[in-house]
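Course exercise 7: structure representation. Students receive a sequence record and must write out the corresponding structure in token form. The form below is the worked example handed out in class, using METTL5 family protein (203 residues). Read each field label carefully; the graders check that inputs and outputs are placed in the correct fields and that the protein name is recorded exactly as given.

STUDENT ID: A-19
EXERCISE PROTEIN: METTL5 family protein
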Amino acid sequence: MGRRTLERALEAVAGFDDPRVELEQYPTPAPLAAHLVHLAGLRGDLDTVLDLGCGTGMLAFGAALAGAHRVVGVDCDPEALAVARDNATRLDCGSVAWVLGDATRPPCCPGDAVTVLTNPPFGAQRGNRHADRAFLASASDLATVSYSIHNAGSRAFVESFVADAGGTVTDAFAAEFDLDRQFDFHTEARRTIETEVYRVEWR
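STUDENT ANSWER:
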């Protein structure tokens, strides 16, 4: 499936019914998800895919629609997973398995040659700084390859963490992340933030 076709399909993925600010539940934009998954496909990384902190399923559906053989989405919020299951019906994509659990301590052992996809919390909320570190730690334990989205300016942190864990950053690129207003403290109907996407080889 081409990137544009994948993006159009992912536009049907519904976001959170009642997003939780403490979990920084912001849906991954369809264009960014399609770009990330398309790159993973070009690199041959869509075999067994684990979407950590899958929310309503954007990256998991992207991987499944792009031809991944096995896709598992993990999230700690049962309401988000309920929306993900509804999205599976809407997209006619019932091949994704959903697991309720902490993505930083995932209750699964997917085996060899696993690719982790994740849009972790950026740590923007008070008391949640470096929340993405725990997601990278999970990826280092579980994955041969990971793709993760981080706030702009994260390169030094990501490269240092990955090097300490014995991995290698192979790809990094900037990406725009469109945010619709969903919390009371948002003052604009929509804003665009700058993010960075990293591909890491862990072993």
